[in-house]
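Box 3.1 — From sequence to structure: Acryloyl-CoA reductase (NADH)
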Amino acid sequence: MAIDFTLAPEHEEIRKRVRSFIQGTVIPAMEEVREDDRDAYLRAIFRLRSQAKAEGLWLPHMPKEWGGMGLGHVELAMVQSEAAKTRIGPWVLNCQAPDEGNMHTLLHWATDEQKEKYLRPLLEGTQMSCFAMTEPEVAGSDPTLIRTTAVQDGDEWVINGHKWFISNARRAGFAILIARTEQDVPEGTRGATTAFLVDLPNPGWKDVREVETMHGSTGHSEIVIEDLRLPDTAILGGRGNGHRLGQYRLGPARLAHCMRWISQAETALDMMVERALNRYSHGSLLAEKQGIQWLIADSAMELYQCKLMVLHAASKIDKGEDFRTEVSMAKHFVANSLNRIVDRAIQVHGALGYSTDTPLAHMFQHARWARFADGADEIHQMRIAERTIAAYQATGSTSSATGGLPI
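Predicted structure (token representation):
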């Protein structure tokens, strides 16, 4: 079994082009505008998106026949990690969450008519979307418990329910909404829900508020759905396939998050080392002190593990193999490593790191979200354990549950 993550020459060229564009164009352009000047900020982003299109750096995750770059997941890892050196980088390349996951979902599950109406505007960058599954009354990590109901009334569906933490809802032109259509099946049944496409705005879709988080109000909405009427043609992926569709969407999306988190962790490690090389205290530079060296070493080792886990999981997706365990492991490990590495970087910066004079404080606020986004740590641990036990029961060995690697 050969494991070789060396990029082909054409993909290495793409990586260099993305890095050059992000470092040389995107970051300098956004430094010239204030985020609180919303109009100027948005104009700058749209100019950068036009440049990305012109330079062939648009939709790295989509097939070429749909206007994308046609990259596999291994190649996408290097694009996402380069783009995420700045928060808006993935947005400029049109490979940001939640639209990225919704594009994959529509490409796989939508009818031809639905693709033209909903997928095409996403790909062209003229519309945004959201994915409405999580509810406040039930565990978000168990979508079989969804209480939002869709009841058939002639050739229409009447939907009522309550959603929250619906990212991008206030900017979305449509939503992929998960609702319970099978009312008489036992709780926990995976075939009880259906996905619907909802044009926004809609009188039955009430955006109550943006949920205030530890890093402010940043687009995660609470939604109340009251007598929302949709036709049969609004169903996405077939009746009863809501759970399957959601899991299909979340697998690669989790790994895409990891790709972006690796970039943030690497930025934090770079800042940690730079600070250690330039800060003098108690007779020597911080870089010469063993306690600081250990923080750097632990971070470097973790980042190495993160990169290998993500690349290996991505390679399994590209090969069409079962990637669920590897993606769960990567998602759990990378999210926790991001938190630890940013925390160490703050420690090395001292009071400066705790202030907002560097990006570390905001990075740390966002990093905490990573441990429950797209599945809480404990859910991934439960699934990893279940698959490890099942592997041993089936073969007498846990090898297949630890990557199936030749060692």
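Summary of the box: The first helix runs from residue 9 to 31.
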